[in-house]
Amino acid sequence: MIGLWTLSGAWCAKELTDGKVPLHMIDELGCTTAQARMLVECGLWAEAPTGYVFIGWAKYQPTREKVEAERKKEAERKAAYRASRGDTVGTPPGVPLVSQPESGHPDPTRPDPTNKEKDIVHAARARELANDFDEWWLVYPKKQGKEAARRKYLTVRKTVDAETLLEGVRAYALISAGEDRQFVKLPAGWLNDGRWADDYTAATGASKPTASRQQFCLEHDGYPLPCDACARNSEIPEGNQF
User: Fold this and answer.
1) Labelling 162: which of 83, 107, 138, 182 has CA 20 to 30 A away?
2) CA 172 – CA 190 distance, rounded (Å)
3) Cβ(137)–Cβ(143) under 8 Å?
């Protein structure tokens, strides 16, 4: 019954009926007469001469008059913006054109009609960058100074794409596996030094690691052979010999 009430409310909002549900729509919405009467008894609907009506519709939903007024206002705003650019195509009848000031610039007293669109684009870009940073941060082997790293990441992204930074940090995480944490760079420092461009394969003295388990150190999980950490400690754990 609640599902029916919600469905019929959505239909009323779309068709701008101000909460009125005509009798012919009862069957189309999958409602039975018994269900309609239950909605009346629950105080959600009231009977009307031509069907039913939502109780308190105007309290929770915009009325047809308000929706149409908002649409007209938006149409006038768009027409005024087009006129300010000298584009009269699509101007609704009866909507006055806004003349271009003699200076050639839009009227400075009128709000820039593109601000809303700009805000939408900026918000979408901000969400994209935030998601990219979260993915990059998840891989970074030393999770310290997150906010400093975030600020630096956003700066770097002005000139470097997300995939390049992600590939770089994956390689760095691999080469840093098993290394003393004091020797792992802070995230912001890694970004500041442009370390995504380093050739980590050359640093290990080995070819690019593959997924074969036999090519990784048994003591330092994920660290490619030959293991620099073992070499620094003069240790060659059993099973690391070729």
Assistant:
1) 182
2) 10
3) yes
For residues 201 and 189, is the Cβ–Cβ distance under 8 A?
A: no
How do strand 20-22 and strand 45-48 relate by DSSP bridges?
A: unpaired
Cα–Cα distance, 119 to 125 (Å, whole number): 10
Q: For residue 21, what are the β-bridge partners?
A: 52
List Cβ neighbours of 157 (8 Å cut-off, separation of 6 or more): 129, 132, 165
Tokens of 232: 């620094």
Where does residue 171 rank: exposed (0-12), middle (13-18), buried (19+ CB within 10 A)?
buried
- Evaluate if pTM is beyond 0.85: no
Domain residues of the chain, as ranges? 2-60, 64-113, 118-198, 207-242
61 pLDDT above the threshold of 80: no
SS in 3 state form for the chain?
Answer: CHHHHHHHHHHHHHHCCCCEEEHHHHHHCCCCHHHHHHHHHCCCEEEECCEEEECCHHHHCCCHHHHHHHHHHHHHHHHHHHHHCCCCCCCCCCCCCCCCCCCCCCCCCCCCCCHHHHHHHHHHHHHHHHHHHHHHHHHCCCCCCHHHHHHHHHHHCCCCCHHHHHHHHHHHHHHHCCCCHHHCCCHHHHHHCCHHHCCHHHHHCCCCCCCCHHHECCCCCCCECCCHHHHHCCCCCCCCCC
pLDDT, tens only, 84-95: 766 544 445 554
CA distance 5 to 26: 11
User: 212, 237, 234, 233: which is closest to 224 by C-alpha?
Assistant: 212
Beta-ladder partners of 56: none
